[in-house]
Design a protein that fits this description.
Length: 401
């Protein structure tokens, strides 16, 4: 049984062009990733899967210098690129690693490989839910499951991100590796922004194990130098062990098409869907169509709530004379108590002079408390929904202390 570690890499990046060729500790980021992947126990080969274009030649040169195979394929259809790499390697098992994670840990990757085998799973990972630092992600799936995904989905989002179909198909047997810790998942060890590059440059200057350091050594170095963690926390979606919540300004802005992927993930979060009136999952293309229509409607206003430029949720107003208000909280922000502040501020800024209604699914006690706090009163029950109404110029209750 052949196990291939397939590392996807490309030169293009809208936020940090050429990032995988950036040099860290004397060698390109891609070399860090491929070298670490070659150390994964149980892997038979490492394949660098690149777009079939001239711009990929520097990536191919680094890969061959590392002793990795090279497979070329579609830039946008990354699922097809993985399938091609798996076929060329005659792989039975495929591990997916991305090239912007220079600290990917061979020991953790081995543990995920072993978990898939022991659980007889079609798919295994270490981020469903996440309990490791962001940047140590890896996924393992059978070649047959990959072929099935290729046949089953035509969604652009699925094909660009390779594994979404495998993570949601009901019949796929899945397993998830956990770290056993609750205090490390908010670390950000991925290269996507200039702040991330500055983080890695500072980290490597103090990392005793250098390019071969494992997760424990990295955590120890960061514990000794918390100022390094702070360098890229602004890109960590407002999370992290060094986050402070005092005196943060909540800002509401209009949604744009640039928010499409973020909103898609929030919309399809299982817990979020449980509280939606229509709780079925949506495909990416349908979501794009809905967002485009929403942004063009005069009777609908979709707002993104942010703290320190980090999106934490949405507020939506629908209708004309009597508007309906609804909201969502980012899955990772649910326990932070932002719902009341979001709804209250949206009402004060956008619709305080007009009557509002809110329809809440029965059993959603958190939303009932938020709407009651914001001056809504229960009116009636209809079709498993609780209907609340708020008159114009009603006051929100003072924040509890």
């Amino acid at each position: 049984m052949t196990v291939a570690v397939v590392v996807q890499a490309r030169m293009g990046s809208s936020r940090l062009p050429g990032k995988v060729m950036t040099r860290l500790a004397g060698m390109p980021v891609l070399q860090h990733v491929l070298t670490r992947c070659a150390q994964i126990e149980g892997a038979d080969c490492v394949v660098c899967a690149v777009p079939d274009e001239t711009a990929s030649e520097p990536l191919e040169a680094v890969a061959r210098n590392c002793g990795a195979r090279v497979s070329r394929g579609s830039e946008g259809d990354v699922l097809a690129r993985y399938l091609g790499a798996a076929r060329e390697a005659d792989a039975d098992i495929v591990m997916r690693v991305t090239s912007d994670c220079p600290l990917v840990d061979p020991d953790i990757c081995h543990d995920v490989l072993r978990l898939r085998h022991d659980a007889a799973a079609d798919y295994a990972c270490n981020n469903m839910p996440r309990s490791f630092p962001y940047g140590l992600d890896c996924e393992v799936f059978t070649a047959s499951a990959l072929r099935e995904a290729d046949r089953a989905t035509t969604e652009a989002h699925d094909r660009e991100h390779v594994s979404p179909w495998l993570r949601r198909a009901a019949h796929i047997r899945r397993a998830n590796l956990t770290s056993g810790r609750s205090d490390i998942a908010d670390h950000r060890w991925s290269l996507d922004y200039p702040e991330d590059l500055a983080f890695f440059e500072a980290l490597y200057s103090v990392l005793p194990g250098g390019a071969n350091a494992r997760m424990g050594e990295v955590l120890a170095a960061l514990d000794a130098h918390p100022e390094i963690v702070a360098i890229n926390q602004i890109r960590n979606r407002g999370k992290g062990p060094y986050r402070t919540d005092g005196a943060k300004a909540l800002v509401l802005r209009g949604a744009t098409m640039d928010d499409a992927e973020l909103l898609f993930h929030w919309r399809n979060d299982p817990t979020t869907r449980e509280n939606f009136i229509n709780g079925t999952a949506v495909g990416y293309e349908a979501h794009i169509g809905w967002l485009s229509e929403t942004l063009g409607r005069a009777d609908r206003l979709l707002l993104i709530a942010e703290i320190n430029s980090t999106p934490i949720g949405t507020i939506r107003f629908d209708g004309d004379a009597e508007r309906e208000i609804s909201y969502t909280i980012a899955p990772e922000e649910r326990s932070n108590g932002f719902g009341k502040a979001m709804v209250a501020q949206a009402i004060m800024e956008k619709d305080n002079a007009f009557p509002l209604i809110a329809k809440i699914k029965k059993g959603n006690s958190a939303s009932v408390r938020i709407m009651t706090h914001c001056g809504f009163s229960f009116v009636k029950e209809e079709d498993n929904l609780l209907v609340f109404k708020r008159s114009g110029h009603a006051r929100c209750r003072p924040r509890e202390r």
